[in-house]
Amino acid sequence: MNEAAPQAATKPAPGASLPPAGNGVEEPKSSGLKMAAIVVLCLLVVAGAVWLSRHHTATANKTGPGARALELPPVPVVAGTVVQKDVPIYLNGIGTVQAFNTVTVRARVDGQVTKIAFIEGQDVHAGDLLAQIDPDPFNAALQQATAKKAQDEAQLANAHIDLNRYSEMVTNEAVTQQQYDTQKALVNTLLATVNADQAAIESAKVLLAYTTITSPIDGRTGIRLIDQGNIVHAADLTGIVVITQLKPISVVFILPEQTLGPIQEQCQGADPDLPVVAVSQNNTNVLGEGKLAVIDNQIDRTSAQITLKATFPNTDLRLWPGQFVYARLLLSVRKGCVVVPDSVIQRPEDPFVWVIKNDQTVELRPIKLAAELTAQVKQGENIIESGLQAGERVVVAGQYKLQQGSRVKLADASGESAGQSPKAAGSPKSGNRSKSKS
User: Fold this and answer.
1) Which of 32, 53, 222, 432 is most buried per CB count within 10 Å?
2) What is the CATH T-level fold of the domain 107-133+212-239, as seen in this structure?
3) In the chain, which residues have pLDDT < 50?
4) So what CATH class is 135-210?
5) Can you give the pLDDT at residue 398?
6) Partners of 339 in beta bridges
7) CB-based burial label for 198 (10 Å; 0-12, 13-18, 19+)
8) Residue 31 has what pLDDT?
9) Other CB atoms within 10 Å distance of the CB of residue 405
10) DSSP states of 223-257 as a string?
């Protein structure tokens, strides 16, 4: 009875829950294992971070092919060399070509045009026949004046004979002094009439000569303004043809009034005829070279500009009346200037240039340009007052990708770098593929 009681006591009753597993001495041992695992994991993370840091530092200090892949590729640029030379200083103005002489040929007598003797656009010389007006009416007038003179000359001769007779008779008192004086007055009257007849003859000859219309100057004829067979009048304003003298020819241009002083100073020198160059509208083609002829005697008060006139030989006829041109007056020649192309200069605020150093990196260099008046040099060039020296290399094209210290590779103006085709130099993708292969 006593031994069976403990066994019944230890047996769980039906429906009773079992005690949780791991109770007792096993629970402290499991917590220690977890803490150890966490510590080991932390040590592994720290060791991995240290290893990555050292690997990155070693790679950054590496000089082999692996380092090239991390560096920025060099920027392709076009380089130029700063030069020192004598630079002509020009004053640029807007001008218009004018014929050296322009004549509208008109009829000076009334009549019918019987002949047109020129071709439109023909070069003519002074005295060349241009047109002929019917001369018959003027020939008749000349003959009439000639006949009238002959009649009056006959009367004058008879009056002279009577005067000589009266001069002998007045001494013998055969005629009175009054009769003698009257005859003498008649002789003088007839003499004046004969002189008037001669003047009429000369006038008739002049009018007859006006029927033959000739060129007054050397030049080129324009479009014919009247056709053969038409009646012309001396009062007509349209004329027959316009003749313009093209050799030489003039260019009238304007400059700001502040340039008048330097121009006058140069005109008072050894060579007062300053050279002037005429340039086309696109400011690229030189159309002719001439000399300054006239400085206007007053300044335009409304525009504050002075008008000048230059003369050009125009032997090749590249200048034409009415043509719009740019006139460039050579003021002086500046000696030993440091010169760079326009594309070299960058002007966000203060002007600067990119200078290429010996290690193929670039340096931003501030510069000072020439003064306003002397800055008008040959098209596409600029004078540098300070900041550059002759012989230095500068970036001519490709500046938009540059930064201070950027490494560059040189290419020619067509975009071809040394040892590469234009396609390889101009295509960033091609450059990247070549680097990955290396």
Assistant:
1) 222
2) OB fold (Dihydrolipoamide Acetyltransferase, E2P) (2.40.50)
3) 1-26, 60, 62-69, 414-438
4) mainly alpha
5) 86
6) 83, 383
7) middle
8) 66
9) 11
10) S-SS-TT-EE-TT-SS-SEEEEEEEEEEEEEEEEG
